[in-house]
Prior knowledge:
The chain is of the alpha+beta class. Among the domains are: 57-102, Wheat Germ Agglutinin (Isolectin 2), domain 1 (2-Layer Sandwich); 108-212 and 304-324, Mac-2 Binding Protein (Roll), CATH 3.10.250; 362-585, Thrombin, subunit H. The protein has helices at 2-17, 26-29, 80-89, 142-151, 293-313, 319-329, 503-506, 573-580, 582-585, and strands at 47-50, 53-56, 69-71, 76-77, 95-98, 108-112, 119-125, 133-134, 158-160, 175-180, 192-197, 206-209, 221-223, 229-231, 258-260, 266-268, 352-353, 362-367, 370-379, 382-385, 398-402, 415-424, 438-442, 473-478, 492-499, 515-519, 535-539, 545-553, 564-568. The strands form 8 sheets. Strands 24-25-26-29-28-27 form a 6-stranded antiparallel beta barrel. The chain is elongated and about 85 Å long. Arginine is lined by residues 480, 526-532, 551, 553-554, 557, 564. Arginine (ARG) binds next to strand 28.
Amino acid sequence: xxxxxxxxxxxxxxxxxxxxxxxxxxxxxxxxxxxxxxxxxxxxxxxxxxxxxxxxxxxxxxxxxxxxxxxxxxxxxxxxxxxxxxxxxxxxxxxxxxxxxxxxxxxxxxxxxxxxxxxxxxxxxxxxxxxxxxxxxxxxxxxxxxxxxxxxxxxxxxxxxxxxxxxxxxxxxxxxxxxxxxxxxxxxxxxxxxxxxxxxxxxxxxxxxxxxxxxxxxxxxxxxxxxxxxxxxxxxxxxxxxxxxxxxxxxxxxxxxxxxxxxxxxxxxxxxxxxxxxxxxxxxxxxxxxxxxxxxxxxxxxxxxxxxxxxxxxxxxxxxxxxxxxxxxxxxxxxxxxxxxxxxxxxxxxxxxxxxxxxxxxxxxxxxxxxxxxxxxxxxxxxxxxxxxxxxxxxxxxxxxxxxxxxxxxxxxxxxxxxxxxxxxxxxxxxxxxxxxxxxxxxxxxxxxxxxxxxxxxxxxxxxxxxxxxxxxxxxxxxxxxxxxxxxxxxxxxxxxxxxxxxxxxxxxxxxxxxxxxxxxxxxxxxxxxxxxxxxxxxxxxxxxxxxxxxxxxxxxxxxxxxxxxxxxxxxxxxxxxxxxxxxxxxxxx
Length: 590
Ligand code: ARG
């Protein structure tokens, strides 16, 4: 009887609170991520990522190339990127037009017929045109409405992409303008316009911009990071309703019509396989159907058609294409690629033997006459390892061996490097193993200017803790013990899974921010003594290897109740780039 009562109470409770699926992740929301959070999204090409936030880049860092553009202050810039990075520092300077600043041209947006100045029907006067025109309503969305409001000085964007009293208003003009934006433009002139004829019976597009004072939050609303309230039903749908994207960045799943990035970000479905990476790990651009020649041919046809249409109707240059072009011109580094992928072969602990080129980032650190630890080549002259592997002031006693496969039967690819400099994390704690990370700089050979390490490829460094999730299968490799006490001399590797909530195994010894755990259900594969300082790499969907962890510690080896603990490399991206330079390790957001 009691149970029945409880059950029915529970049932009522559930009914009362049943609503559309809520995909939001609370813990993530507390980080207040926005479109400026580079642990969740890519920065704009005129921004760079510093400590998790996209900040303005100086104009001279823009890639060469592109054509000149004119700003609203009638200043000529060499490229769209130059203007945008200047605007980033001086927001009153906005994009006006592609080309020169010859005439005193203007682009104006105004809201008509509204009761308040912040609402009404959108009217625009384009550059090169004397007429004021209406925007078409049929393809009008909150994405464009947010840009209109931002253009007019409302940073939080639009409340609705309509104006409620516009029912009686008919378009007086015989045609209207279709506009499409990406959503983060600061001026409507950056969006693409095209003219549509015979639209006399279409109601024009309207907008109600968001004003902090007027909108009392409803009980079922979501509070964006910028303070705007939106209906909860509009979160995790791939559409940037908030105007700062905060409604799309902490989603365990996404509503139909949008794509879920592994980093728990929702993007519009049509960003998938569009040739531009939107998810930080590129999962939106992998497994695209018919990626090869046939698709490109197909696209060619489509593009031709679009171009014919556009030549007739497009009224301005599409700055989104320019943005993409700039993005593609940014410097790129090569990392994480290997010429062969590991295959199953005979049997670290429980692992398989590696062959040449399988782990080109793996190095061995030799102290006196012993291979003491592993290490990871990350580019330039730099090796990452665990802090507990090295002692300050002993740099001269270490050697870095690259290309090593077996230190009994030495292979010809091996090179031995002296250590020039040793940097141990200054918060490393030998008692708790917190911040178990160190950098070794190897000496350049002869009077060479650069380090060239043949038969090595740097591992990529993760810049966000959202790149790989628990249960992802990664690879640990090293020269460590085969079983609890049996010494092996060759490089071994094995698959291990990332494990969530590791405190349940190690309680207070595990520090979530700085450490991560990996292992197998039965403990059959694990790192062991001697593997320390070596790599735990995870592959993205294009098979690029990221250094996700550095072998640090564990209770015994290969015990399922005690998984291996690794230094969480993503937490140290800024620490590493401080010493080695951002340009060496940053793949994006530079
Ligand atoms: N600290 C050990 C070393 O110096 C590595 C231990 C890793 N242990 C483990 N069970 N995963 O080599």
